[in-house]
Amino acid sequence: MRKALIVGLLTLSVASSAAADQDTLPPWTHLRPLSPSAIDLVWESMSRSSIVEDLLRQLEETGVVVYLTDSMPGAVAGPVSHLVYLSNDETTRYLLVRIDRWRSTPFERIALLAHELQHALEVAAAPEVRDAQGLAKLYRRIGWENQKDKFETEAAQMVGAQVRKQLTKGPDRRRAALSVATP
Ligand SMILES: [Zn+2]
Fold first, then answer.
1. What is d(CA 109, CA 46) in angstroms, rounded to the nearest whole number?
2. Is the pTM of this model over 0.85?
């Protein structure tokens, strides 16, 4: 079952890479968007939120690779984003982040991406996590169980809230930063 999922994802990844213009792929190797719309989400998030950019920079320094999809087929209830453990080899652990684009606004998706990237960094900081059971154990330690097998942390909630705040300050964060720096 798990093997089938991974093969499916890799096929999807190759297909979307081939479809996308190489120049338009985001410059990260540890975040791998699996569709053109997921690629757009990464670019949009980077241009609008320095917090997301900082999280991505931190992720690059880890042994964790995050696949990103913005579709959650069949989901009509429950969380609009989540992170799951896929697999690992000797040097790298692979996670999957799903964000449901049908149940979230473009604005909210940026905050959700930041939230899930924070979770990915939490996993990166816990090298003992090597499977789904290890993931659950980590989150029982650093967070709390919302519903059965669904966990949350204060840090991820806080990062999401910070990004929402940043986005409401205006679309151009560079201009916003400049006006803050200029008395
Ligand atoms: Zn969360």
1. 12
2. no
